Structure formats: C-alpha cells, structure tokens
C-alpha cells in the first residue's frame, strides 16, 4: 500500500510539473507556436495582431531572431515595447549566421530573459537551429540529442546546416 501511495504522489508531482501556471503552452494565433521548455515559447513570425495575444498570454519578453529587412512594414520592437514587454533582437538571416558567436549571444539572451519568453523567427526554423547548437555547444548534449532539442524548438530545413556545424565543432572556422 505504501508503494501505491508513493507511486500516486510521484505521478501527481510529475503531472504538476508539466506546466507552469500562467505560462502558455502555445499561442493559437501565433504561427508555429510551441513550448519546448518551461517558461519558453518558440514561434514563427509575429504579425501586429499577435502582440496583444502574446501580452495577454503572460509573455514578458520577446526575442526576435529576424533581420529588420524581413518585416519592413512592421516595427516589431516598437509594438512589443508599446505593449509593455521587453524586446531583444539577434538578427539571423540564414545558415551563415549559425556561428559560435551568435549561439553564445542567443544563450545569454535566454539566460537574461524575463520569463515567460517568446523566441521567434520567420517559421521557428532558425530558433530551432540555434537551440540545437546551444544544446550541443553550451549544454554538452550529443549531436543526436541536440538535433532532437532543435526539432522541439522548430528546427526543420536548417537541420543539415546544423549537423555540419555539429560535426565540425564549435571552434571550426566559419562556424
């Protein structure tokens, strides 16, 4: 009987730990939104109408991985800050920006972020690529585990570029 009580307690604690109150597991209107880790939402492009949903959902900071040129008609920084949220930008245009320097900057942004935080790019792919490289180079995950982490964050078409960098290692020239 004692082992049954322990099993029930462990199951209840595990279930309680699956979500954090007030932290959205997804934002339905935001493209490709998912929650890959506690206090973090990964997503695709934000549009002006998304900012209010993000704020209402309890997000406290937005980390934008897109260059300004991708959304010339939307001043995301101004919109996010006007909504009372923190904003940070690490512009990544594509595979050539998947560098150790940018991964370390991404890691620092996540460490310093007001939680819950939304991290996004155009589709979630660059977010996933950076998460995979961070998982390997900063957190010490194996390449396969890092790719799985990246996929949970949104990694898709940049997987080959990420694998190349993981094979070359964090100190390789150009990475």
UniProtKB/TrEMBL annotation:
Domain Beta-lactamase hydrolase-like protein phosphatase-like: 43-134
Domain of life: Bacteria
InterPro entries: BLH_phosphatase-like, Prot-tyrosine_phosphatase-like
GO molecular function, one term: hydrolase activity
Protein name per its UniProtKB record: TIGR01244 family protein
The species this protein was found in: Lysobacter spongiicola DSM 21749
Biological classification of the source: Bacteria, Pseudomonadati, Pseudomonadota, Gammaproteobacteria, Lysobacterales
């Amino acid at each position: 009987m004692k082992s049954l009580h322990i099993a029930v307690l462990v199951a209840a604690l595990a279930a309680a730990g699956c979500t954090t109150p007030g932290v959205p597991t997804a934002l339905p209107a935001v493209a490709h939104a998912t929650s890959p880790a506690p206090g973090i939402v990964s997503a695709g492009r934000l549009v002006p109408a998304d900012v209010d949903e993000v704020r209402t959902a309890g997000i406290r900071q937005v980390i934008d991985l897109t260059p300004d040129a991708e959304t010339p008609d939307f001043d995301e920084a101004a919109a996010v800050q006007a909504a009372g949220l923190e904003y940070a930008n690490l512009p990544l245009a594509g595979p050539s920006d998947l560098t150790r320097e940018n991964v370390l900057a991404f890691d620092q942004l996540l460490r310093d972020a007001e939680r819950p935080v939304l991290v996004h790019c155009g589709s979630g792919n660059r977010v996933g690529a950076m998460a995979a490289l961070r998982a390997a180079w900063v957190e010490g995950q194996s390449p396969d585990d890092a790719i799985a982490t990246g996929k949970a964050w949104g990694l898709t078409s940049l997987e080959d570029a990420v694998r190349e960098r993981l094979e070359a290692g964090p100190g390789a020239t150009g990475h």
